[in-house]
UniProtKB/TrEMBL annotation:
Keyword Iron-sulfur: no
This protein's UniProt keywords: Cell outer membrane, Lipoprotein, Membrane, Palmitate, Signal
SUPFAM superfamilies per the UniProt record, alphabetical: beta-Barrel protease inhibitors
Organism field: Roseibium hamelinense
Protein name according to UniProt: Protease inhibitor Inh
Membrane topology reported for the UniProt record: Lipid-anchor
InterPro entries membership: Inh/Omp19, OM_lipoprot_Omp19_bac, Protease_inh_B-barrel_dom
UniProt entry tagged with the keyword Repressor: no
Family according to the record: Belongs to the rhizobiaceae omp19 lipoprotein family.
UniProt-listed Gene3D superfamilies: 2.40.128.10
Primary subcellular site in the record, as a coarse category: membrane
Length: 176
């Protein structure tokens, strides 16, 4: 009885090991991916929070280098003739163009911080490639980054075309 049980266990172990890709050595075994390089974490002390932060939002610090300053454009005014749109009108793939950048944007109805999930493919500019969400406010479509900050504000000029501007003030179009 013990001998039969041990034989059955040994056969089961051999079958189990032969079926495992890691031990089979077959051509279907996927090699592990290389480690992703990361940047080292810096050290330093943080400055105390400024209680007046946000009061002069968008103000430019003249002493800061120009590259460190973020320019925030004024909200886009609703153009005459802007069309009423619904959330389902935004679903699917869109072509996205701003300046010399042409890429794709994809909109879903999966809830996300400050709206619904969106993503882009093939965008060269950091602003457009950071799009992670979209929201509909009245007739305005707002494209947002992963933190919920506006990247672009657009209005429908036709059922298949949206025009507006990025937060940096560049013209932007979303079309099919």
């Amino acid at each position: 009885m013990k001998r039969g049980l041990m034989t059955a266990c040994a056969v089961g172990l051999v079958v189990l090991t032969a079926g495992c890709q890691r031990f089979s050595g077959g051509s279907n075994y996927a090699t592990p991916l290389p480690a992703t390089p990361t940047t080292p974490v810096g050290q330093g002390s943080l400055q105390p929070l400024d209680q007046t932060a946000g009061l002069n939002e968008g103000a430019v610090d003249p002493s800061a280098p120009l590259a460190d300053q973020e320019v925030v454009a004024a909200p886009v005014a609703e153009p005459t003739g802007a069309l009423e749109i619904g959330r389902s009108d935004m679903l699917g793939g869109w072509k996205l163009a701003s300046g010399g950048d042409n890429c794709m944007a994809f909109m879903t109805l999966t809830t996300w911080s400050g709206g619904y999930r969106a993503n882009t493919r093939g965008c060269a500019t950091p602003a457009l490639s950071s799009i992670s969400a979209w929201d509909l406010t009245g007739k305005q479509v707002v494209l947002k980054d992963g933190n919920g900050a506006p990247v672009a504000q657009l209005y429908a000029t036709s059922a298949q075309q949206f025009n507006g501007q990025t937060s940096a003030g560049s013209a932007v179009s979303l079309f099919r």
